[in-house]
Amino acid sequence: MIEILVLCGLAFVAGLIDAVVGGGGLIQLPALLIMLPHTAIASILGTSKFVSIAGTSIAVQQYAKQQKIEWGTTIPAMFAAFIFSFLGARITSLLNPSLMRPVILVLLIAVAIYTFSKKDFGLLQISKFSRSQQWIYSVVIGSVIGFYDGFFGPGTGSFLIFAFVGIFGYSFLTASASAKIINFATNLAAILYFFFTNNIIYTFGIPMAICNILGAFIGTKLAISKGSQFVRKLFLVIVSLLICKLGYDIIK
Length: 252
Fold this sequence. Notes:
It contains nine helices and no strands. By secondary structure, it is mostly helical. It has one domain (2-251). Helix 3 (41-66) runs antiparallel to helix 8 (172-196) and helix 4 (71-91) packs parallel to helix 6. The radius of gyration is 17 Å and the shape is globular. 48% of the residues are buried.
């Protein structure tokens, strides 16, 4: 009983953070690993994805109702991310994902420095490309980050937001909305695999999913009401935590 209560509380926090800037997995996945130490890794991952997609679906619904979404770039990226997330998950059986940690750590540090140094980054929305160019870039972004999410995962939401702000000139709020839709696609690809291999623990997953949904609902309300400045600040906090986590994993 105590395990469910702790996991539900942390799933709520993960859903709230993930709805705004991504990075909920930083809280939720380690919590499952700690609270269920004798459970197979595949079942831990499957349960975490099951919980995450519940909150993400609510975040997508709320953003779609209350925030303008750039569907022309989001939909191509979503389909590409779905396909390449599945491919990335398959590659994990051939390569060791931990080899990616130093590379991702360097990229995250660069993202943090760039975002912190450019005070107006992501606060205003500026269109940079024609529709055809946007489509091409969105497919590339969806493919690369979708593959990364399936293969390794940490920081996917943050990388998506940074890409949509930096490449397309979106505000942080618009980028966060698009990132949630693409994240839904990558989570769905993983869920299909874990569902058909019976690697979802529903006794933990269902109550956690309910709490994650509640957190996601509150998170999207906060993001929409407080705007891009709030999202930018939380983005920097989550990226900093990711840097600390990956750095610790490398040196331990």
